[in-house]
UniProtKB/TrEMBL annotation:
Signal peptide start and end residues: 1-16
Protein name, per record: Calnexin-like protein 1-like
One example GO MF annotation: unfolded protein binding
InterPro entries, alphabetized: Calret/calnex, Calret/calnex_CS, Calreticulin/calnexin_P_dom_sf, ConA-like_dom_sf
GO cellular component, one term: endoplasmic reticulum membrane
Length: 445
């Protein structure tokens, strides 16, 4: 076969789908699931130029999908990509895409939460949980069981309000995967090592029938049974004894009470002995005591008892009967199989679905790529995400400059005494800023 012909065949064989919403929701249909009342809309995000798929309302369940003209077969490498702009952030909700397994019986109206997918990929965040999911539904060639295999410790979702592009690469050539955010590799490795449960179930499993024997000894340390309390060990000796060396400090006032009647207090004029009882002056600290080392009865302080031993207990020793931590024995795993090509067992991608529940609104999906060719995803990123990034970075820079200017102005105002004139100047400057902003917009558009 000539090289040209071979390349031509390759090009034909590779599938590439790029879905955007610049022309609206053409080809996409909401699910008829009765509880999914959320309705996506196609709208141009503030500051950007083309329509994207918007989540208009919070606290709703959404389901929408589109069937691909031709299913994409992951057996020849699979790259999945989309971009996401969290206009109002993501406090709690899904922002991922389900790449639905090809099935002629599937219709978008019939999309359900358990519609089988080949890959679920993308952002999901709630509170401290923050994941870019990558989940494969893999079918065991031995048992026929389909199981969700989750990427362990997935990368984090970018939570600012700019557009970020998420890419998943599944390589059939060497059974590897990679997750990129904004074209940068965040996680990569082997399909056989980084998913849970493991794509290839282990050779052995703990025997569920095995039980810990009744006489199993799992105490590693025990009190020495041969140890005896020494003859001279007095368990009754007190912890503290009076300190016989202590002496009453000189100048101690044994006869003086700690408190005395306040000499300045007077019986109130309206005091009625019959009604109120005998009047007594309130007590104050005895001023004589403040000068000397102390007043009243002197008490001998205690000191630690050198003979104190407390309760005797035998020293701990290694238990000679210890058998270790009990574990059930391992038996051969009936599900064990080595799948040399797991990507041939996750099904073809026949549709793209966004089926989410979210507590946030104002976020946008766009530029969904489903392809056998990693270069295709790169091309789409360059063509669609980079221009968005340029606009958003510029805006951010302008906002930063504006904030700086305002902060400088505020500082200046604080320092100046002539308030009136200053204000006028400020107003004018603001007007100029606005004009400048409009100019840059015109450039972009
Ligand atoms: C698989 O191949 C790709 C490119 O062909 C390479 O970047 C990656 O490091 C390889 N991964 C593994 C786990 O071999």
């Amino acid at each position: 076969m000539s090289r040209a012909l071979f390349l031509a065949l390759l090009v034909v064989a590779a599938q590439a789908v790029h879905l955007d919403f610049s022309k609206g929701l053409d080809g996409w249909e909401h699910s008829e699931e009765s509880k999914w009342v959320g309705r996506f809309v196609a709208e141009v995000p503030a500051s950007l130029e083309k329509k994207a798929l918007k989540v208009p309302d919070k606290a709703k369940h959404y389901g929408i999908s589109t069937v691909l003209k031709k299913a994409v077969d992951p057996a020849k490498d699979l790259v999945l990509q989309y971009d996401l702009k969290l206009g109002n952030g993501l406090s709690c909700g899904g922002a991922y895409i389900k790449f639905v397994t090809a099935d002629t019986a599937f219709t978008p109206k019939g999309l359900k939460d358990d519609t089988p997918y080949t890959v679920m990929f993308g952002a999901d965040k709630c509170g401290d949980t923050n994941k870019v999911h990558l989940i494969l539904r893999h079918k065991s060639s031995k048992t026929g069981k389909v199981e969700e295999k989750h990427l362990k410790s997935p990368p984090f979702v970018e939570t600012d309000t700019k557009t970020h592009v998420y890419t998943a690469i599944l390589r059939a050539s060497n059974n590897s995967y990679a997750v990129l955010v904004d074209g940068e590799e965040k996680k990569a490795g082997s399909l056989f090592e980084d998913f849970e449960p493991s794509i290839n179930p282990p050779e052995t499993i703990p025997d569920p029938e095995d039980k810990k024997p009744a006489d199993w000894v799992d105490e590693a340390r025990i009190p020495d049974p041969d140890a005896k309390k020494p003859e001279d060990w007095d368990e009754d000796a007190p912890m503290e004894i009076p300190d016989e060396d202590a002496k009453k400090p000189e100048g101690w006032l044994d006869e003086e009470p700690a408190e005395v009647d306040d000499p300045d207090a007077k019986k109130p004029e309206d005091w009625d002995e019959e009604e109120d009882g005998d009047w007594e002056a309130p007590k104050i600290a005895n001023p004589k005591c403040e000068k000397g080392p102390g007043c009243g009865e002197w008490k001998r302080p205690n000191k630690p008892n050198p003979a104190y031993k407390g309760k005797w207990s035998a020293p701990m020793i290694d238990n000679p009967a210890y058998k270790g931590v009990w574990k059930p024995r391992e038996i051969p795993n009936p599900d064990h199989v080595k799948d040399p090509a797991p990507l041939t067992n996750i099904g073809k991608v026949g549709a793209a679905a966004i089926e989410i529940w979210t507590m946030d609104d104002g976020y946008f999906f766009d530029n969904i790529v489903i392809s056998n060719d990693v270069a295709e995803a790169e091309k789409v990123r360059a063509k669609t995400w980079e221009p968005k990034k340029k606009i958003e970075d510029k805006l951010e820079e302008e906002e930063r400059k504006k904030a700086e200017k305002e902060a400088a102005k505020a500082a200046e105002k604080e320092g100046s005494k002539d308030d009136g004139e200053d204000k006028e100047g400020g107003e004018e400057e603001k007007k100029e800023d606005k004009e400048e902003e409009e100019d840059t917009y015109a450039d972009e558009l």
